[in-house]
Amino acid sequence: MRDKILEYLYEWSKIPYQKFWKKNNAWNVSLNELVKYPNESLGFHLGAFLLKHSFEIQPKLESHDVFHVLTRTGISVPEEIGMQYYLLGNGKRSLYLFLVILLGTLLYPDHCTLFVRSFKKGKKAYGFHQLDFSKMLHIPLRKIRSAFKIQ
Description:
Strand content: under 5%
Structural class: mainly alpha
Protein name: Coenzyme Q (Ubiquinone) biosynthesis protein Coq4
Organism: Costertonia aggregata
Keywords: Membrane, Transmembrane, Transmembrane helix
Transmembrane segments: 95-116
């Protein structure tokens, strides 16, 4: 039930968030283009992640999926909340992030260990949440993780 609540809220809020709060431009890259990047690149791994989960590229929200790839975070609701804790630890601050963390913590108190662990991992990594990943798609994923100490 709690998964359904958060999934509904996400779907309901996604379009206004894209339209009114996200100031960045859409990447204008297709899934076919991503999987044509070299196998070790961020672009290829992003494409593989999207294909594996049958996801489509969401304009202006592309970085969210990059965060999944970089941090090796799964897509379950508790893992999504954990990723927001990771990003909070990494220095990201946004109303959306705080709302997800607030609601997620209230609905999933049984996952607080995951949330604390994720926050600590984010603190240990160098700040990466603000990067323009559209310009980094050709870079090997392991180099990005290494450079930013992403566990």
